[in-house]
Each structure stands twice: as C-alpha cells, then as structure tokens.
Amino acid sequence: MACKQGIRESIEESKAFYEKQKEYDPYSELWSSLVGRVHGDNGAFDNLSKPEKIYFAVSCLDGEVYNGGMHQFFSNSSGEFYAEAIEGLTLLEATESLSLLRCATKILFGDAFPPKDRQQRWALMKQYSDYENEPMPEWSMELEKIDRQYWKDPDDLGDLLINYVEESGLIQPFYATNK
To answer: Is pLDDT at 7 greater than 90 in this prediction?
Structure first.
C-alpha cells in the first residue's frame, strides 16, 4: 500500500533519519556533558574550565536567539551567561554577532549591564505587555530586526564554535569514548 500511495520513499527516509540519530555524536555528548555539569546535582557553571564556559555561554546565546530571539536569551536563565557570551564572541572574533548582542542589550537595558540574577534582569529589562491587543512597542520591532540579522548567521558562528572546541581540545575526550 505504501508504494501505491507514493510514501515508500518517505518511510525509508524517515528510517534512515532515525538510524542516523542513534549514531554516536561527540559534539552532542560534549553538550550533554556540559549541561549535566551546569544543571545537574552539585553542578555549577563556575566549575567549568574557561574554554567550557566560553563554549557553553555562546552556545546558550545561539540556541536561545534561534529559538525565540534576543529577548528570550535575556528572559531565560541563559541570560546569566551574558558576560561570558560577550567574552566568547570576542574570542571567536564573531564581530557581527557581538555587535548585534550589544545592540539588543542597549535596547533592552539602556546603559545598565544585564545582571546575572534573573529576577533583577527582568526588573531592569523592557517587557512585553500582558495585553493582547496592545500595539507592538517600537523597541520590540528594533529587536526583531536584530534577531533577523542574527539569524542570517553573518559570522558562521556554528563553524567558529566547532573550530573552537577542536582547537581547545574540548572535543577530544568525546572522540575517544563510545565510537
């Protein structure tokens, strides 16, 4: 029946996709290790090495911005890694991403430095209205432009991060296990 309906190829592609998901991925294992160490029992960001902090912070920024924009980065717990994300983007020479992050910071916080504490960040940053029918604020439209520029990936940030974990040796222990 699948052949008659023309979905056999789709089924086979789906099977191949899920088989590929089962393959060992050292980058996924590195990320899982860092998340577990930061958010697990007795975990703390401060216990990471400097290269791990850089990779973690920039990856958090990147994930949050692609998921919901700069506002989401600052609203969520990931915003506590702002200073390390700035440091990481500088180290990676991701100049466009760095500039966009700084512009978003200026829009949301003015001249204030975003606090690590989430409640303090919320109190300082611009927030969306609770009322559905209210027009979109000007700052939100500016932020959306920044998000769109970021999504164009002007620095090839993913490639910069891959090069960073390889050059810093962060990925090496994960190549050696479970290949």
So the answer is: no
In the chain, the amino acid numbered 28 is S
Is residue 114 within 8 Å of residue 79, measured between CB atoms?
Answer: yes
Confidence of residue 108 (pLDDT cuts 50, 70, 90): very high
b (16+ CB within 10 A) / e for 31-65: beebeebbeeeeeebeebeebbbbbbbbbbbbebb
Distance (Å, rounded) from C-alpha 168 to C-alpha 120? 34
Asked if 26 contacts 175 with a C-beta cutoff of 8 angstroms, the reply is yes
> Which pTM does this prediction carry?
0.84
Taking the C-alpha atoms of residue 77 and residue 64, their distance in angstroms, rounded to an integer, is: 10
Q: Which amino acid is at 69?
A: G
Tokens matching residue 148: 């769109």
